[in-house]
Write a structure and sequence with these properties.
With about 375 residues, the protein is an alpha+beta fold. The protein folds into 3 domains: about 170 residues, Alpha-Beta Plaits; about 55 residues, 5' to 3' exonuclease, C-terminal subdomain (DNA polymerase, domain 1), CATH 1.10.150; about 130 residues, DNA polymerase, Y-family, little finger domain (Dna Ligase, domain 1, 2-Layer Sandwich). The protein has 15 helices and 12 strands. The strands form 3 sheets. The protein has a 5-stranded mixed β-sheet with strand order 5-6-1-7-8. It has a 4-stranded antiparallel β-sheet with strand order 9-12-10-11. A 3-stranded mixed β-sheet has the order 3-2-4. The site of magnesium ion (MG) has 5 residues, from strand 1. Magnesium ion binds next to strand 1.
């Protein structure tokens, strides 16, 4: 049985503002725009503001009417992103399998980590405590046998909540919830169900699988399962599912390996730069080749350690190029990286001087919005954009 944790920061943006400005504590803080902003919507509000009926996605103008003495703040997304990053680092202290849902919300697959704590409550408390120590903010945590239960649990006792639902309690715990709490049941579906006198999850269990599928199609099966606390979706660490890369098609086919090598260096540098911008490392490097007859091949190498340095990416891709080029002219060349991870060493063959050079080049290239610095082999090609 899996152990899934859902962590949701409590009124995140407003809480950050209250943390950094003591005068805002205990007051209705509404983040999303200034009081007179015509088109603004509430992105978060403090619990004090919620008492007046203010909620996220509400137009600012309406929030002003409901809560005239509220404190309206446009918000500082750069700051929130920085805090979010600190919180993510805490998540990775507890599990390598983290699915980031949004800036203030994540699933952690804790399966196999349970034995490190006496109880799941202890585990939940440890995560909350580390978050509090690190960013001085409260989070609500839900723990259950799957994502659906974990998310419902974290939402159950906000703010600063901790709710653990062991597998054997799922059936009874779920029963009284309104159907709208079921993932995927929106206004429309809820209305159809209400017309069938189905209001709670217990009611929903009276519907046969066939009738739900007849009415809602494929989603009907999901509803049938969720009503029973069954949810097979896995926690998907964002970085494992993604890959990134660059490819280029030539105006004229190229057969000269020296010329291909230059293009490859360009591509590797761009991919490396993007990895570093995302603070990710890649374990697998893939070369894509399209020959003059449109045959396309991809060849990959997985490395013992994740990398994000241009040289490591280039060297690996170059080896693949040499092994696969033959004598055929090439139409398209691409470099992709996958099996991405937020943990990595400075580099495969850590060389502080090279790391420093990379950082300086990244900074300059970022500042100019285009590559201005090239390493020796990376000379701009004729006709390069
Ligand atoms: Mg939240």
């Amino acid at each position: 049985m899996a152990t899934i944790m859902h962590v949701d920061m409590d009124s995140f943006f407003a809480a950050v503002e209250q943390r950094d400005n003591p005068e805002l504590r205990g007051k209705p803080v509404i983040v999303g725009g200034t009081r007179d902003s015509k088109r603004g919507v509430v992105s978060t509000c403090s619990y004090e503001a919620r008492k007046y009926g203010v909620h996220s996605a509400m137009p600012i103008a309406q929030a002003v009417k409901l809560c005239p003495h509220g404190i309206f703040i446009p918000g500082n997304h750069k700051k929130y992103a920085a805090v979010s990053k600190q919180i993510r680092a805490v998540f990775y202290e507890f599990s390598p399998a983290v699915e980031i849902v949004s800036i203030d919300e994540a699933f952690l697959d804790m399966t196999g980590c349970e034995h490190l704590y006496e109880t799941l409550e202890d585990l939940g408390r440890a995560v909350k405590e580390r978050i509090r120590e690190t960013v001085s903010l409260t989070a609500s945590v839900g723990i259950g046998p799957n994502k659906f239960i974990a998310k419902l649990a974290s939402d159950h006792r906000k703010p600063d909540g901790l709710v653990v639902i062991p597998p054997e309690e799922v059936w009874d715990w779920l029963a009284p919830f309104p159907v709208k709490k079921v993932w995927g049941i929106g206004q429309k579906t809820a209305e159809v169900l209400a017309s069938w006198q189905i209001h709670t999850i217990a009611d929903l269990r009276r519907c046969s699988q066939e009738s739900l599928i007849r009415q809602f199609g494929k989603q009907g099966l999901t509803l049938y399962q969720l009503a029973r606390g069954i949810d097979h979706r896995a926690v998907e660490p964002e970085s494992e599912t993604k890959s990134l890369g660059r490819e280029t098609t030539f105006a004229e086919d190229i057969a000269a390996i020296s010329k291909l090598r230059q293009v490859l260096a360009d591509l590797a540098a761009e991919v490396g730069y993007r990895l570093r911008q995302h603070e990710l490392w890649a374990r697998t490097i893939t070369l894509k080749l399209r020959y003059d007859d449109f045959t396309t091949i991809t060849r990959s190498t997985s490395l013992p350690e994740p990398v994000n340095n241009d040289d490591d990416i280039f060297n690996t891709a170059h080896r693949l190029l040499v092994d696969n080029i033959g004598r055929r002219p090439v139409r398209l060349l691409g470099v992709y990286v996958s099996q991405l991870t937020p943990f990595g060493q400075a580099s495969l063959f850590s060389d502080p001087r090279r790391e420093k050079l990379t950082r300086v080049m990244d900074e300059l290239n970022t500042r100019h919005g285009r590559p201005v610095l090239y390493k020796g082999r990376r000379l701009p090609l004729d006709g390069d954009k």
